Structure formats: structure tokens, C-alpha cells
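Quick sanity check, Polyketide cyclase:
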Amino acid sequence: MMAKTKIEANASAGRVLTITRLFNAPPALVFDAFSDPKRMLQWLGPRDYPASYVENDLRIGGKWRACLDSKASGEKLWHGGVYREIVPAERLAFTFAWDQADGRPGLQTIVSIDFEGKNGKTLMTFQQSEFDTPETCDGHRMGWNGAFDRLEELLAQD
């Protein structure tokens, strides 16, 4: 039994993304940046693929959708999902899937984001899982970290 558990745990190795960031803003402001489409347009996506479209229906079972546009090639990357958990200023959880060429959703992952207040700042713990390959996970790590760099700059302006 113990060996089976260990094998199952190793099967997920490299396919779960966890990012922790400390933002210089209170949890309510950081949560707002993740839930207000106007704010999301200002930071979602890395610098070379900024968001050009964001919509969301912020309620359990509500859908969200966004498009990232390549500055170099004009490629459009559509993606979306469904909200599963919403606790204002504390937690968000939703599904995430890139659109495939035929417009249908591809591999679905689950994103959970915890916002913890720390002396007027926010410790954000972001987790996305489970990816099909470690390479896909690494690609998302680069993309999300690029977006979070932009979010940090946005929050510094508030």
C-alpha cells in the first residue's frame, strides 16, 4: 500500500505548478485584480502576450473567458473556465483550458489562489494542476510569472 501511494505521488511530479508571491497591497485589492475584468486587462498575460479581452461571471458556476494576443505574430490564445470557489479577499478556484483549433476546450486544469494578509501585504499562493507534461507546466510557470510581474507593477500604482 505504501509503495502504491509513493508511485501515485511521483506520477504528478513536475505536473503541478505552485507559485508564491508577496504583493505590496492588501488582500482585497489583490483579489479585485483577479476578479474585475477591467483590472485583469491591465496585467493578465506576460508582456509579449498581453490580454486583449477578458470577461467573467464571478459566481460559483459562472464562466470566465480571456484572450492573450502575441505582440510579435498577432496570434490569439483564447482560454476560459468556470468558477468553483469564491471567497472575497481570501480564495479563488476555477477551471482553466486553452481553446483548441476547433474552438473546443483542451486539457482542463484547476487553478486555486489563496490570498493571505501579512502586515498590509498579500501572500498569494497560486496552484494549477494537473498538467499533461512537465514541459506544459513549465510553460505555464513562465507565463504566469510574467503576468504576476505585471500585476506587481499595477498594484504599485494603487
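Posting the structure with no commentary besides this: DSSP finds four helices and seven strands in the chain.
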